[in-house]
Amino acid sequence: MELRLGKAHQSWINELQQVLWAHRTTPKSNNEETPFSLVYGSEAVIPIEISVETKRVQDFDPKENKKRRREDLDILEERREMASIK
Which InterPro entries match (predicted)? Predict the structure, then answer.
């Protein structure tokens, strides 16, 4: 954060949301999971994926998504337990 703010240390509050987003969506080396996925059961779609239309966004199917979301939520507790074991 020091490099990003430079000498303007008082502007850290302006950068806080981006720093927290990066922290929450970066896989952690100790359990190979993102904090976001352990809370919500799926990976976050970052804004650039929507504007650039990545394959993940292009292949989105609402009906299939609903089914997969249920499956993700069904195994969420197991994923959390595995992460805590690691």
Answer: RNaseH_sf
Please write the tens of the pLDDT for every residue from 7-25: 666 677 788 888 898 889 9
- Per DSSP, the three-state class of 46 is coil
Task: Domain ranges for the chain, please list them.
Answer: 2-85
Local confidence band at 83 (pLDDT 50, 70, 90 cut-offs) = confident
C-alpha dihedral over 8, 28, 51, 6, to 10 degrees? 10
Q: How far apart are CA 62 and CA 30, in angstroms?
A: 33
17 phi and psi, to 5 degrees?
-60, -45
